[in-house]
Amino acid sequence: MKIGVITRNPQSFATNALIKSFQLLNHNVLTFNFNEITAYIGDSLKLIVHGIDILKELSAVVVRPLGRASLDQALFRIDLLYAMQENGIRVFNRPDAIEKCTDKFRSLYTLRMSGIPVPTTITTERSSLAMRSLDLLNSDAVVIKPMFGSRGHGSVMVRKRERDVIWELVRSLTFYRHVAYLQEFISHGGVDIRAFVLGDRVLAAMYRRAPPNTWKTNIAQGASPIRIDRLDPEIEDIAIRAAKTLRCDIAGVDIAVAEGRPYVFEVNSQPDWRGLQSVFPDKNIALEIAKYVVDTIRR
Q: Would the pLDDT of 218 be above 90?
C-alpha cells in the first residue's frame, strides 16, 4: 500500500524514522507538505500533490505535524484532513483529534468533563475579567500560556503577588485580540511524565527533568529524559484514558504529580519521540507506530 506522510521536513528525526519504518514493512511512502496540496472541486473532489490525486493513491496519511499557520491555513489544513478521511483515507491522528488537541481550552474542558484531572484554568477575552478571577486559582503562582502552541514556547510563570506583571502580560494578549489563558501553577518539583500512547497501550514513558533554575520540562527547552521501566498503573490508566477521550491513536500525554495527585497538562496529537527514543535504545518507536498504522488499515 501507499502511505502519505505530511511533513515540513522529511529529514527530521521522527519523520525520517517513520518513513524508513514504512519502507522496512514494504510499503511505499509519499511525503508532502500541506502547502503542496491543491484541492479541486468539480464533478468530484480531487486533492492533487505532485500531479497525483492522493484520494485515489493513498491508503493512509500520517500528520507530522500540522505546523505553524494562520487561522485560514489552520482551518484549511483541518478541512483537507476531513476531506481525506471522508473519502476513505485513514488519517493518523483523526482530524477531530488534532482539532481538539491543538486548542488548549477545548482539550482541557473535554478531559475535565470526562473525569480526568487537569489544572484549574481561567480563559477569557477580557483582561479585567482575568484579573478579577485570579483568586479562583489555588496556587501562589500562575502560568500564562498561548491558546495555541507547543514545546513550552510563549509560556511564562508569574507569582500572583506580582499583579502588575500579570496585568501587563494579560493586557498585551487581549489588546492584540488573543485569548487570556491562565492556569494554576502545579508545583511538580521540575519533573513531569511523558507517556507515549499508541492505541490501547502506553508504548513507553519517561520523566522529563527541567534544567536548573527553570520550571519548564519540555525536551525542546532543554529538559533531560529519564527512562521509566514500569509506569505507575494509575498514571498509565490516566494517560490511556486521556488519549482515548480526545480520540488519539498516537499521543504524547504530559502528566505531573503534586502532593500525590496527578494532573494532565496536555495531550499532544503529533508528538515527537526523539527524547523518548534516546532512553529506549532497545525499542524502535517509529517501527511500532508504522506497524500500528498498517494493522489498523488492514482491520
A: no
